[in-house]
Design goal:
four-stranded parallel beta sheet, 102 residues, alpha/beta
Length: 102
């Protein structure tokens, strides 16, 4: 599964990406995660991603990301703040796998 993660680029984003990948490994799901900045999202979302996720820090721009993702046929959702932590891997994986079904 390929997950595109639009974020502000801080250290917390790296922690969340790592938590998601580790949780995927535990569950036997191969997950590729690419964290991109807000400027790179529009071009990157068209490159065959299964799901696009938006970090809480950039949620105020979610509508714009959603439009680009819809145009590319990629399900897009904002990450709930409670899942955006080192311990949020299980909740985040559940959300990502549910979105990937569509």
């Amino acid at each position: 599964m390929k997950v595109l993660f639009v974020c502000s680029g801080g250290m917390s984003s790296a922690i969340v990406v790592s938590a998601l990948k580790k949780e995927g490994e535990k569950q036997g799901i191969n997950i590729e995660v690419l964290a991109v900045g807000t400027q790179e999202f529009d071009a990157e979302v068209r490159n065959g991603w299964d799901v696009a996720m938006v970090a809480p820090q950039v949620k105020h721009r979610f509508d714009g990301f959603k439009v680009s993702a819809d145009e590319a046929g990629v399900p897009c959702e904002a990450i709930p703040a409670q899942a955006y932590s080192p311990l949020g891997g299980p909740k985040l994986l559940k959300l990502v796998t549910e979105l990937a079904k569509y």
